[in-house]
Design brief:
- The structure is a single chain.
- By secondary structure, this protein is α/β, with parallel strands linked by helices.
- It folds into two domains: 313 residues, 3-Layer(aba) Sandwich (Rossmann fold), CATH 3.40.50.150; 131 residues, no CATH class.
- Helix 6 packs across helix 8, helix 8 runs antiparallel to helix 9 and helix 15 packs across helix 16.
- 45% of the residues are buried.
- It holds the Pfam family UPF0020.
């Protein structure tokens, strides 16, 4: 099936054939009716439907909502997509549970939690798991406020703190600024309870990133500085930011960030005070529920996820400063963590042995063409496809009978060769006995998603939302 070149434009019509907007309440309880309507239209046309989830899911507000914005993260899934599927009761029979095996910063987990589902997550990036856990935890707001006061008091008393090893530290921090941040971290790490400590670790991570010399407009760390090719307006903004870094107080900013995040928690509490926090079942999407939790027979009725693309976003590099600050990985171990990630961006030459395994013929051809142009990209692309194949098989395994898998993906180019991630997913999952129940196309409007991942890749401006039934 060609999922891009042929498509149907989604329309809702009344009895007279006039286009109408689906009726929804400000806080819709169930999106099943819209979901069934989409399936009927997809079956009738046999073509992917073009939708705008921001319009379709009009009950989700744009911008800062609940705890979605407690910490930045590259290429975040818009909450509208997650919200739409977790609120479709037709996708649940007995158990209301949702799994995101590539959870990132927890957009799906939070929407599932707020909708009254039990969220399960997996991700190879420990920072992603930390943010997701904090984002979905129902904290006592008063307790957070009191602990913030205690942290602030300790920070004002301390004159020293353990030195933290940061990758390329001299590029990102002056000695004075780094010491001020280390004192804050010392005070945070002395918080007694693990959950509350983790909340303030996330707040500290935001502060440490904000006070680095890294350009906030670029997900991976790139030193912020004026350049001749920039416009005067851009350079003036950079000068202003650099001046702010020199004049502002890290402690005051930490308090401001913490208060803002406490209010976000309060907002989520008001919406659903009984929401469940995310349970981490694995750190590898290729081996779900096979860790020390003893949940090998784990199954869920619904998976909603957005896997990394081939030549993917630089998730580990973009997280490197926070990973080091929080003690989640040492600077010289970042490449080890990247090696555990699907969609990695590097493959050092001494480890470059073409991965073995079977791929569909058309993808063998694509990999061959990429390899002929760039051996490294050929290696990375083949490894990505094989690892995604394993991850898809694992998703199919843990999906309950009559359950569903929702995958948000996009197509990109590697060395001017189109990598059809959507068709690859359809080919693999249908070969495993799943049925493509719905195919949607949504255009990406967030600049945070429309980024080049490396110089041989392309910008992704549209995504496919594929729904499979088991």
């Amino acid at each position: 099936m060609n999922l891009v070149n042929r498509r149907a434009v989604l329309k809702f019509e009344d009895d007279e054939g006039k286009v109408v907007v689906p009726k929804t309440k400000s806080l819709i309880k169930d999106s099943s009716e819209i979901y069934r309507d989409l399936i009927a239209k997809f079956r009738a046309s046999g073509l992917p439907l073009e939708v705008d989830f921001r319009t379709l899911v009009e009950w989700v507000k744009l911008g800062d909502q609940y705890t979605h914005q407690i910490h930045t993260y590259p290429a975040k899934l818009i909450p509208h997509i997650a919200n739409f599927f977790v609120k479709a009761s037709t996708l649940f029979k007995n158990e209301k549970a949702v799994l995101d095996p590539f959870c990132g910063s927890g957009t799906v987990a939070l929407e599932a939690s707020l909708a009254g589902c039990t969220p399960y997550v997996s991700d190879s990036n420990p920072l992603a798991l930390l943010i997701t856990k904090v984002k979905t935890t129902n904290y006592d707001v008063q307790e957070l406020s009191e602990e913030l006061q205690a942290i602030t008091y300790r920070c004002k008393r301390y004159r020293s703190a353990p030195e933290i090893a940061i990758v390329n530290s001299n590029l990102w921090y002056s000695a004075e600024r780094k010491k001020a941040l280390e004192i804050i971290l010392r005070a945070v790490m002395e918080v007694k309870g693990n959950e509350i400590r983790d909340f303030f670790r996330v707040c500290f991570s935001v502060t440490a990133k904000r006070f680095s010399n890294a350009d906030p407009a670029i997900s991976v760390p790139v030193r912020l500085k004026t350049r001749e090719r920039f416009s005067d307006a851009t350079n003036n903004k950079i000068i202003s930011k650099l001046k702010w870094l020199e004049e502002s107080s890290p402690l005051q900013e930490f308090v401001r960030i913490s208060l803002a995040n406490i209010e976000r928690v309060a907002s989520a509490n008001r919406f659903n005070s009984d929401r469940a926090s995310a349970s981490i079942i694995s750190r590898d999407a290729r081996r779900l529920a096979c860790d020390s939790l003893g949940t090998k027979n784990f199954q869920v009725p619904l998976i909603v996820t957005s896997p990394p693309y081939g030549s993917a976003q630089k998730y580990i590099r973009s997280s490197s400063i926070s990973l080091n600050w929080l003690g989640l990985i040492e600077p010289d171990k970042l490449t080890v963590l990247e090696d555990q990630s699907i969609g990695r961006e590097h493959a050092p030459k001494f480890r470059r042995v073409m991965p073995q395994g079977e791929l569909p013929d058309s993808y063998e051809d694509v990999v061959g063409k990429i390899k002929a142009k760039n051996e490294l990209r050929g290696f990375i692309t083949r490894q990505y496809l094989l690892e995604m194949k394993d991850a898809l098989a694992e998703m199919a395994r843990v999906t309950s009978e009559n359950g569903h898998i929702v995958i948000v993906t996009g197509n990109n180019q590697v060395c001017n060769e189109t990598l059809r991630n959507d068709e690859f997913i359809v080919t693999i999952l249908t070969s495993l006995g799943l049925n493509l129940e719905l195919s949607l196309i949504d255009h990406i409007k967030s600049r945070g998603l429309m980024t080049k991942r490396n110089r041989t890749a392309s910008v992704i401006s549209r995504e496919s939302v594929l729904v499979f039934s088991k």
